[in-house]
UniProtKB/TrEMBL annotation:
Signal peptide: none annotated. Residues 1-146 form the Thioredoxin domain. One of its GO terms (molecular function) is isomerase activity. This is Thiol-disulfide isomerase/thioredoxin. InterPro entries: 6-blade_b-propeller_TolB-like, NHL2_NHL_rpt_dom, NHL_repeat, Thioredoxin-like_fold, Thioredoxin-like_sf, Thioredoxin_domain. Keywords: Isomerase, Repeat.
Length: 591
């Protein structure tokens, strides 16, 4: 029996969704509390928001979810940007603004997302990293509620959530835009869970496709429903629009003539393992036509996929699901939440948002024009190898071969010239631009998502920005140089056991940036513990760890299978006086 650990008190810069009230742990006593450590750039964190919604509904009077927002990017420290993200992603529970990562350190989080479960008496009873924990959480909540109801320590009642006032605008956090054959513009109105067809000036509504309520219903435009749709692609037939229905993990089709919406690909459940390749999607964020097929930016698993609209088939084009930056022949490359696509000639341009990178595929190889890794970002112009972006979400190729980038968290439009290799700034001061459209008439529209509108790009001189270089100020883990032990802690959820039906039940992949940091221990294996040798000559770096564990329900007929998976990018600093063990919790329980 391990010692019971009191949950650290909740402290932060401010609270959202509480009507102005500052919450303390004492206010939550008598209820099970799940602390969700998240950051709004992170696709895995957005997946967890979706996993928590049915649990909040099911256990509403016994469960309180608290979002603890611990930011990665500089832009995510902006309190107004956080408030907008809470609305954008439909977060209907209190959120603590942990701008200085105090709670992150107090609860020993090392990955986005991390969940900490606090029982009705105020003790931390479980911690788990990554997504896919809904089934395990359900079993744990059932146990905790039964135990504390019997003890008399469970007190049901209304939660502390207070909905903020709603604003009424033509669009609400629009995502992507395309031009239709008629000259009208079609916009994914993401927070309204619908598509909006606008007049060519982008200012008046022609028709809305979707009910405006979150759902996944096919049918006529007025009855169909989406869930936070993003990317749009007009097929060569001139009448079918492919829609990346992001939170539904589907590709949908919208027929411009009949007005009907149909499902083209996906199962509605997120991809969990290679067994899902070509079957289940994971947060498709953008779509474009390239070399006779639709290419899908599969943000949820850091890959590009293809979709054949005639055969209704899908498959992997590029990426291994490892979240990092590595070029080379596809598919054996690394990406990190690709979120914007634009095809021009033989080049497929990609913005890889979590590495703040502009990349392209040509002749079967992936290249990086701008971008240095998961934790380097900023607003710096100049040669591509030195330039920096901050979580870009949109890209559009220009007729001269250059590309415009919606540099989302810098609030800017940037231009990259492949001939000179230079990055420059075209416009700035925008509110989270998320996409760009070059119309047939040569106009450039910017989807200014944070301002809920489309704006024309003002023509003018290209400017050069020389400052604002950042790295993620995430507390590093001190480790001793030389031999260290990496331990990924995994405990099956209540009622589950490790499952080796389809091969080894666990998998561990380790790499480093820079590669010289790791003298020994790189590669793939099936043991969740591994001996590493860290190079004393490299004072700091990033250990990149991917772990997964397969489980199934124990002692039941027709047992369901589950896969728990998490990527860590762990900043480390070498110190001879530091520990020689790095524990990472994939899923842990207080025994």
């Amino acid at each position: 029996m391990s010692a019971r650990v009191r949950a650290p008190e909740l402290r932060g810069r401010a609270w959202l969704n509480t009507g102005g009230k500052e919450l303390k742990l004492a206010d939550l006593r008598g209820r099970v509390c799940v602390l969700d450590f998240w950051t709004f750039c992170c696709i895995n964190c957005l997946h967890v928001l979706d996993e928590l919604r049915p649990l909040e509904e099911k256990y509403g009077d016994a469960l309180v979810v608290i979002g603890v927002h611990s930011p990665k990017f500089e832009h995510e420290r902006d309190p107004q940007a956080l408030a907008a993200a809470v609305e954008r992603y439909g977060v209907h529970h209190p959120v603590l603004d942990d701008a200085d990562m105090v709670m992150w350190q107090q609860y020993a989080a090392k990955a986005w997302p991390t969940l900490s479960v606090v029982d009705p008496e105020g003790y931390v009873v479980a911690s788990m990293a990554g997504e896919g924990h809904a089934e395990g959480l359900t079993r744990l909540l059932d146990e905790l509620i039964a135990t504390h109801e019997a003890k008399g320590t469970l007190h049901r009642g209304d939660g502390p959530y207070v909905a903020p006032p709603a604003d009424d605008t033509l669009l609400r956090f629009p995502g992507k835009v395309i031009e239709l054959p008629s000259g009208n513009l079609l916009v994914s109105d993401s927070a309204r869970h619908s598509l909006a067809e606008l007049t060519p000036d982008g200012e008046s509504l022609v028709r809305r496709i979707g009910t405006g309520r979150r759902g996944r219903t096919d049918g006529p435009a007025g009855q169909a429903s989406f869930s936070e749709p993003q990317g749009l692609c007009l097929l060569p037939d001139g009448r079918t629009v492919v829609v990346a229905d992001t939170v539904n993990h589907l590709l949908r089709g919208f027929d411009l003539e009949s007005g009907r919406v149909s499902t083209l690909a996906g199962t509605g459940r997120p991809w969990r393992s290679a067994a899902d390749d070509g079957v289940s999607l994971s947060s498709p964020w953008d779509v474009t036509w390239f070399e006779g097929r639709v290419v899908v930016a599969m943000a949820g698993i850091h890959q590009l996929w293809w979709f054949d609209p005639e055969l209704r088939t899908t498959g992997v084009l590029a990426g291994t699901t490892v979240e990092s930056l590595r070029d080379g022949p596809i598919p054996d490359v690394w990406m990190a939440q690709p979120s914007g696509l634009s095809a021009y000639g033989k080049k497929l341009w990609i913005v890889d948002s979590e590495t703040s990178a502009l990349r392209w595929v040509e002749d079967g190889e992936l290249h990086t024009a701008v971008g240095q890794g998961l934790f380097d970002f900023g607003h710096v112009d100049g040669p591509g190898k030195e330039a920096l972006l901050q979580h870009p979400l949109g890209v559009s190729a220009l007729p001269d071969g250059s590309v415009l980038v919606a540099d989302t968290y810098n609030g800017a439009v940037r231009r990259y010239d492949p001939v000179s290799g230079e990055m420059s700034t075209v416009d700035s001061g925008l509110a989270e631009p998320s996409d760009l459209l070059v119309t047939r008439a040569g106009e450039v529209f910017v989807v200014e998502s944070g301002a809920h509108r489309l704006v024309r790009l003002a023509p003018g001189a290209v400017r050069t920005v020389e400052g604002e270089r950042h790295r993620t100020e995430r507390p590093p883990s001190p480790l001793a140089p030389g031999e260290v032990t990496l331990d990924v802690v995994f405990t099956p959820a209540p009622g589950q056991k490790l499952d080796a039906t389809f091969g080894p039940s666990t998998r561990l992949v380790v790499s480093a940036a820079p590669p010289e940091l790791l003298l020994e221990g790189e590669g793939t294996g099936t043991d969740l513990s591994r001996r590493l040798v860290l190079n004393p000559a490299v004072p700091k770096g990033i250990l990149q760890v991917v772990a997964q564990a397969a489980t199934c329900d124990a002692d039941v007929e027709h047992a369901a299978c589950h896969l728990t998976r998490q990527d860590w990018g762990v900043p480390v600093v070498l110190d001879p006086a530091a520990p020689d063990r790095l524990p990472l919790i994939l899923r842990g329980l207080d025994a």
